[in-house]
Amino acid sequence: MASKDSMFRQWNMLRLVPRAPLSITAAEITERLAQAEYPIDKRTVERDLKALESLFPLLVDESAKPFKWSWRRDGAIFSLPGMSVPEALTLTMVEQHLQRQLPPSTLDALQPHFSAAAQTLAAIDDRAQTKAWLGKVRSIPSAQPLLPAEVDEQSQRTVYDALMKDRQLRLHYQKRDGSALTVYDAVHPLAIVQKAGTVYLVCMFSDYADARTIALHRVKQAEMLYLQARRKEGFDIDAFIAQGQFGIANGGEIRLQAVFARAAGEHLAETPLSKDQVLYSESADHLRLIATVPRTRALTWWLLGFGDGVVVHEPADLRDEIKQTAQRMAAAYQDKS
To answer: What is the pLDDT of residues 74-119, one digit of tens each?
Structure first.
């Protein structure tokens, strides 16, 4: 009986053979199998093709060398299970990183593919380059990572389904400072936004026209209604985020001027803060930054994260805000013993 590895290899070989009049040589199959993490020699490919010829409607043109292989034009349509290693790698990374950004119905449909991807990767050597990629790549958040809030799975599924179908929702919601559940009888979903470990539903309530946000992990029960959800005219999720609804934006653009300690600011030469950034030496140990950036809370937190490695000079209101924050921090850390 053929090993699992050779079975996967032969499945991939069959998928590479085109239907006549197109054709492929054993050398071409060998090269493409190597790219798919099945490194074998051409003689093994030729031997496999001969064996598969007796089981599948394969056709070999031996009129000239190199011999060319095709799937017979009149051969039955044959759908092969399994997938290539690059496909398996892609699906595995989708499963790892997009779980909360795909609708549950899509995730359900992808589950057999995720399982097939896991089987494909399990069947190849751990040292194979594509499989090893999973252990070589990581995405590190720029801020302190937090564990994601625990979301009721059935409620999430219902909310996502209603968003996709433009249907109204009835939600039982646990407010942060409330002991009893609040029931919202008519919720019109507009969008889903994930920020760090929290997923938010952007929606409208009842007959109100303003868009609000609620944390999905506080939804304890959700019911999709057989009523069409209202649309908010001109609603744009990116514009909504830019208005500061998630603590991202405070106002318009500012002309930031700041002096960084060289060790703290030299990375900005390679990863600029803006397209119009100017960065130059103020002294042997300091760099001056001038850049046009949005006035955001994230900018304030970013600057505070450098501690005494940066001094903001302009605009004056941002300088004052950071100065006052620093003073409050110093007061909080005073030894009162």
So the answer is: 776 655 555 777 788 888 888 888 877 777 777 777 787 788 788 7
- 8-state DSSP, 216: G
CB 168 within 8 A of CB 225: yes
What CATH number belongs to 153-242?
A: 2.30.30
**Which residues sit opposite 322 in a β-bridge?**
none
Mean pLDDT, residues 234-241: 87
> Is the domain 4-71 a CATH 3.30.1150 member?
no
Q: What is the pLDDT of residue 1?
A: 38
pLDDT at residue 227 greater than cutoff 70: yes
Spans of all domains in the chain: 4-71, 85-135, 153-242, 253-332
Residue 26 phi, psi (nearest 5) = -65, -35
Whole-number Å distance between alpha carbons of 36 and 10: 12
3-state secondary structure 10-56: HHHHHHHCCECCCCEEHHHHHHHHHHCCCCCCHHHHHHHHHHHHCCC
* Torsion-angle region of 15 (φ positive above 0: left; ψ -120 to 50: alpha; else: beta): alpha
